Amino acid sequence: MIDAVFLNGTVGVGKSTIANALSALAAESGYRHAVIDLDHIRRAWPALKDDRFNHELELVNLRDVVVNYRNVGIEHFILAGVIEHATEVPRYEAALQSRGLLICRLEADAATLRRRLRSRHADSPTELDWHLRRAGELAAILQSAAIDHFVVDASGDAPMVTATKVKEKAGW
After folding, report:
1. Are the C-beta atoms of residues 96 and 76 closer than 8 Å to each other?
2. What is the distance, to the nearest Å, from the Cα of residue 21 to the centroid of all Cα atoms in its chain?
3. In 19-75, at which residue ranges do the beta strands (DSSP E only) sit?
4. Which of 33, 111, 112, 154 fits as disulfide partner to 14, beta carbons 3.0 to 4.6 Å?
5. How would you classify residue 54: left for phi > 0, otherwise alpha for psi between -120 and 50, otherwise beta?
6. What contacts 49, CB < 8 A, 6 or more positions away?
C-alpha cells in the first residue's frame, strides 16, 4: 500500500504546486495526510562544509516531523523534494516509516523552467543565475539516476490535472 508520494524534480518544475494540488485531492478522498516541502525543513545557513544542500539535516528533521504527524494519526505523506541517488531511497522510507513510497519525477520543458524561475527570482539576479544553471544540471542528474517509479510532464497541464495523474498512480 502506497502511504507516501515523493514528488522529485529539478528546481522550478512545480513540486510544491503539485504537492498542494495532490493534498486537495487527498483531502477530498478522506486521506489523513501531511504535505512536507523538504526545502523548508533543510533551510539553514551556513550549510555544513560536507553537506552542501543540508541533506543530512533534512533527513533528521523529516524523521522527527513524521513521528509527530504519525502520533496524531497522519497516515499518508506528500513530499516535495529531490532524491538524486538510489541509495537515498531507503533512508527516506525509514524516515517516513513508510509501507510504500511512490516516487514521481516531474519534468518540464526548458522554456517553462526558465519562465517559472525568472518569475520566482525576478528580484535577485544572483539567485536566478544559480537556479537557471542548477535546473539543467539537476534534471540531467535525476534522469541519469532513474530511480523514479514514473515521470509526469508538468509543463502545460493545470496542477490539478498533474496531481490527478499522481493520485491515480498512488491508488489513492
Report:
1. no
2. 13
3. 33-37
4. 154
5. left
6. none
CATH number for position 10: 3.40.50.300
Give the end-to-end CA distance of the chain in Å, rounded to a whole number.
9
Can you give the residue range of the structural domain that contains 20?
4-161
What's residue 49's pLDDT?
86
pLDDT in tens, 92-143: 999 999 999 999 999 999 999 999 999 999 999 999 999 999 999 999 999 9
Q: How far, in Å, CA of 165 to CA of 172, rounded?
A: 11
Sole residue written with cell 499522481? 166
Query: Does residue 166 fall inside a structural domain?
Result: no
Question: Which pLDDT tens digit goes with each residue over 124-138?
Answer: 999 999 999 999 999
